[in-house]
Amino acid sequence: MKTKLAVLASTALLLAACATATPENPGRFLSHGETIARCGVANYTFRNMTDCSGAPVASAKVENTEAAPVIAAAPVPSLRKQIYFASGSTKIAKSHDADIVAATDAMKVNPAARVEVQGYADGTGDPVKNEALSKRRAKAVQTAIVAHGIDASRIELVKPSQAVGEEAADATQKANDRRVEIRVY
C-alpha cells in the first residue's frame, strides 16, 4: 500500500511538471481525460485539471487507468467555417482571419486532420466565369491555410455539385452564395 501511494505521489509530481506547459503553448494544462503518454508516463490520465477558463484547479487528481492505451491519438477535430466574399472578388476579408486561424489551429492539434475546401459564386453574370470564380475563391482560402503553416497535401479542393447559385436569387441569397466552405475532418 505504501509503495503504491509513493508511486502515485511521485507520478503526480512528474505529471504536474509535465502538465504546466508544452513548447507550442506555454502555460497550457492538460485537459480533462487527456492521456499523458507524451510526458513520459503512460497509463495515467488527468481528471479535472483545469476549470473552464483554463486555470489550474488545486484539487486535481491522477487516476490509474490501466486499460488506457500507452499512446492515445487525439480525436480528430471537427470544424465547419464559411468565408464570404464581395461580388466578383477572391479577396478574403479581414473579418474572416479568425475563421482561417480556427481551421488551421484545429489541424495543428491533430496531424491526421484534413480540410475540405469548396468554393461557390452567386448566379449573377456568366455561369462559366462564375464557376471559375468559385474555384479561385477556394484556391485563395487554400493559400491562406498554407500561409498559416498547414501542408497543401492536407487540403482537398472539392468541386460542389452546384458551385453557382440561382440567377434570380434576392440580394441576401446572392451574398450567401458568394462563399467558400471549410470542413476540417
Structure in words:
By secondary structure, the protein is α+β, with helices and mostly antiparallel strands. It folds into two domains: 2-64, no CATH class; 79-184, OmpA-like domain (60s Ribosomal Protein L30, Chain: A), CATH 3.30.1330.60. 32% of the residues lie in helices and 15% in strands. The chain has helices at 2-19, 97-109, 127-147, 171-177, and strands at 44-47, 61-64, 79-84, 115-119, 155-157, 179-184. It has a four-stranded mixed β-sheet with strand order 3-6-4-5. Strand 4 (115-119), helix 3 (127-147) and strand 5 (155-157) form a beta-alpha-beta unit. The two termini are 45 Å apart.
Please give the order of strands in the largest beta sheet: 3-6-4-5
Task: Give the overall average pLDDT.
Answer: 73
Shape: elongated
Regions with little confidence, pLDDT below 50 for 5+ residues = 1-53, 55-63
What is the tally of helical segments? 4
How many strands in all? 6
Share of helix, binned: 25-40%
| Number of structurally distinct domains | 2
CATH C-level label of the largest domain: Alpha Beta
The CATH topology of the largest domain is 60s Ribosomal Protein L30, Chain: A
CATH architecture classification name of the largest domain = 2-Layer Sandwich
Oligomer state of the chains in this structure: single chain
Strand content: 15-25%
